[in-house]
Amino acid sequence: MTSRRVPRAVAIITGDELLRGFIQDANSGFLADQLRDMGVELAEVRIVGDDFDSIGTAIADTTRGPLAADLIILSGGLGPTHDDRTSEAVALAVGRELVVDEAALELVGARVRAFGRMRTPEEVATFTPGNRKQASLPRGATWVDPLGTAPGYVLTSEELTFVVLPGPPPELRHAWKGVRATAELQAVLARTAPAHERLLRMWGVPESAASRTLDATGHDDSDARRVTICARDGEVEISVRGTDVASVDALVDGLTTEFGPAVFAVDDHRSVVEFIADELRARGWMLATCESCTGGQLGSALTEVAGSSAWYEGGLVTYSYASKTLLAGVPATLIASDGAVSESVARAMAEGVRATLGVDVGVGITGIAGPGGGTEAKPVGTVHLAVATPAGIVHRQIRVPGDRSTVRRRSSHVALHLLRESLRDA
Amino acid sequence: MTSRRVPRAVAIITGDELLRGFIQDANSGFLADQLRDMGVELAEVRIVGDDFDSIGTAIADTTRGPLAADLIILSGGLGPTHDDRTSEAVALAVGRELVVDEAALELVGARVRAFGRMRTPEEVATFTPGNRKQASLPRGATWVDPLGTAPGYVLTSEELTFVVLPGPPPELRHAWKGVRATAELQAVLARTAPAHERLLRMWGVPESAASRTLDATGHDDSDARRVTICARDGEVEISVRGTDVASVDALVDGLTTEFGPAVFAVDDHRSVVEFIADELRARGWMLATCESCTGGQLGSALTEVAGSSAWYEGGLVTYSYASKTLLAGVPATLIASDGAVSESVARAMAEGVRATLGVDVGVGITGIAGPGGGTEAKPVGTVHLAVATPAGIVHRQIRVPGDRSTVRRRSSHVALHLLRESLRDA
What we know:
The structure is a homodimer. By secondary structure, chain A is an alpha/beta fold. Helices cover 42% and strands 23% of the residues of chain A. The first copy, chain A, has helices at residues 16-19, 27-38, 52-64, 86-94, 102-116, 121-127, 131-134, 169-180, 183-191, 207-217, 245-259, 272-283, 297-302, 321-328, 332-338, 343-357, 404-425; strands at residues 8-14, 41-48, 71-75, 98-100, 136-138, 142-143, 153-157, 160-165, 196-203, 226-232, 235-242, 263-266, 287-291, 312-317, 361-367, 382-389, 392-399. In chain A, strands 2-1-3-8-7-6 form a six-stranded mixed beta sheet, with helices on both faces. A five-stranded mixed beta sheet of chain A has the order 14-13-15-16-17, with helices on both faces. The mean pLDDT of chain A is 91. The interface between A and B is large, with 91 and 90 residues.
């Protein structure tokens, strides 16, 4: 029996295409989120090649290393071809043979036939020889219902539990739900002491100020209480977690009081857009956007959330001067006198789109994303934002350091928070 | 002297916030890209915590492991606080002491004072005690001019070269440029045999078809010739690389002939938007977009590229039925008869935005992103796209499997390729 400490996990993500830079790994972020939520400490993520040696070495390092992992989560390499070697590596690591699970074989076969309705006969044919391979699992594994043709599974060997998941993100997410409910995973949580996790999200507080407050109140780093502070796009998140529930709660309560209205969410992981959606729905208001430097990124962020048509009417991307006048009714004389990147134009854009689309709330963004277009008075990164509601109009100017992509992303994110605050106060 | 084989690298990315799922690592993708371009094989990426033990263990595994790395690249942990431990871990691994580099100290001090112009005196004060720490490097290190206050450096010990970079992505990218030019890094490339790298990018070919062709022509996996195939958002990329230049080139030439007009780029890493920009600039044409289900994502993608104002006029996000009629002039009767998600409405959107904004090229996207809104005849994932140019109008219908986010991303990407093909053929 191990001592009652926070359970630790290591994630091993396989995929040559990730190491070649063709695609960005999306699974480790999902797993990090899920594990934090369960009180499990993700100690490391390893992105390795598809070959047997790379997977085997990563498993061996983890099992013999000082990390004392309770969970090894592997993703990828469960496909039907000879290049898919993950189950072999796991079987070798635990010293068990691979055996065909008859129930899994039946299900994989059924899935291949079902997918056959949507694929060419030629493509189905390439699947079939791999059926038995995909249903071959290390002896003692508990598999879960797959979204595709690769069953994920969980397997405990002494005090180490392996979770093996298919690589495509939608399949991984589906399989994770099944694995999370298994007796094997619940046993890991029961044997250890999952951390009590609290999350404070703030807006309008510099990371350095948050750090100093934490230094003063006690910036612990033990299983009893551990603090992580993270700033992204102007939002500051403080995660406090550990086995000492009273101590964790006391720190979170203290910080919540300390930072007052800057705290916009406690233990609430929803996106800022979801806060905005709630405020709009509560008032029955419709929203429209008018973007220049962000080129549609704000509209895209708002509509990423399902059901946004209930409160988002539409938007204008007024990239050229002429389109600002034509679509949003910004007077050409105003652009000529104050410049396209100015407080007055941002206000006119917010008011203009509100009028054009006949909605309750309008947002305007105009700025210099760079790398060109900056001047002494208005350097690259200068952005003006405005939100018009029935209660009035608010404006904010920001100056974002960084490249074009950073300026645009930060601008969209500031617009979301300005919108959230305007609605809260309206 | 090691044998002439492809140089191998391992990247060790530090950051508790990455393991907590608060932010997604952006550095490993950049490094993967850069290394591939240099002919270096990235064998593994390890994302580890900020603590000394985690960094030390990752380095130790790599130096003693079977990977035979030539390069260990570390990012993060070069800050001024006691939590920043990367240089200590590197110094221990190579058995050298940390010494203050006087020239680096002077530069870090100057940088802190320069940044002081933009920060509060309180913030500058918190920097100062860390100056000496940031200028303390393992003896023999060659540092490069930093963007911020943390100098990255390169250090060779026997046949292993360490590259140590600051964590914030803009700082890392800047420092990498400096490191890449150092004699130490050039020596690694001279000692080994960087791979000859070719890249084929195709559109309109299923990954399974590309795989079968490769199986037939020889899907090697050795230092002499190695092939990776990757599909993302409908694009298929085949990377062929290795030390056998003639064999690599022969395969690429064969595949280019085999796939004909589906190949849109050979050894050209530019984004699809850059291809579009070239076509538009060559003709002096202006572009406008009209988006429904993508909510502005296409406009955002088009304007991510610097200089887009030369060919992008603006866009409409016509999310509601009413806005489609009001802004893009789509007849309400057409929406009533054919549905908002239909070929005729996509065509009307493309033509409508072209007329409204008075431009040469218009794009329309309308679809069902889900999770709600699907029907038997038009399930979730049904998307209609149209591109109107002076040469006429093209339409395409797609059915995207996957969640809301996938449907939207794929739709934007298909729109870009439809636009690219329409311009090429116009």
